Amino acid sequence: MSTEPRACVLGWPVRQSRSPMIHGHWLKIYGLLGSYEHAEVPPEDFEAFVRAFAENGFVGGNVTAPHKEAAFALLDHAEPSAAALGAANTLWFADDRLHGANTDGFGFLANLDDRAPGWEGGRKVALVLGAGGASRAVAHALAGRGFERVAVVNRTVERAETVAALAGAAGVACGYDELWRWLALADVVVNATSLGMAGKGALDVHLGEMRDEAVVTDLVYVPLETPFLAAAKAQGNRTVDGLGMLLHQAVPGFERWFGVRPEVTPELRALVIDDILRGQDGGRS
What we know:
- Keywords: Amino-acid biosynthesis, Aromatic amino acid biosynthesis, NADP, Oxidoreductase.
- There is one protein chain.
- This protein has helices spanning 19-29, 46-51, 68-73, 80-85, 104-115, 133-144, 157-164, 179-183, 227-234, 243-249, 251-258, 266-279; strands at 6-11, 35-40, 58-63, 77-78, 90-94, 97-101, 125-129, 149-153, 171-174, 188-191, 215-218, 238-240.
- By secondary structure, the protein is α/β, with parallel strands linked by helices.
- The protein folds into 2 domains: 6-103 and 250-279, 3-Layer(aba) Sandwich (Rossmann fold), CATH 3.40.50; 106-244, Rossmann fold, CATH 3.40.50.
- Helix 9 (227-234) links the parallel strand 11 (215-218) and strand 12.
- The chain starts with 5 loop residues before the first strand and ends in a 6-residue tail after the last helix.
């Protein structure tokens, strides 16, 4: 059996994931031995696959839909980022114990720091649209960055309340009937829904109440400029696409598995954009 470190991305399906491209690029430019591959694992086989990780030569891996909560349940030790969300997207072994973290929030913040310096504004109000799995990491990260209010807007208010709770005392939940109120206050506006993704309908939101200074970001990165971002740009707002979140969330895992902290460079971004333009499929993996 090879002694070179071997990692993977686990999902169902997972062939659409660009994680092997990202990690493969870093392995090449840093001249490191190792490999990173797809691992399509159906839910009923997930626990057995992870339990046999080390036996099969894996030092760890990334986890994408629909396995993040199942991964968390298998951890011997959960980093605070995973414990707060009840979900893990990065796994590794240390002292024969399975460790896990959730790097989605880290990736989200790092993308904005990189692409829109000063995006926090007064760090008073952040607005998150949607209450799916991605919004959980976003709300928690925004509260951790020091926002006084993190408003989560969703058609089902009960789901928004669950996400807003992850922002602690800063969290506020409401329906779309109150969107105008938060748009007028927000320093940053986040589309955390999948609407706007290739193959899906556009997010139907009127942005007229939004402040000129607000920074607008979308977690979707296929297409790079969603209709939501295009509408915000047309109003003169700064916009940030979702690709950087994918790139930055991969950094901590690579460092754990291969021993080098990689950089997210324009070269890497261009490599993935070229692949997107050739494929134009959906997904955030």
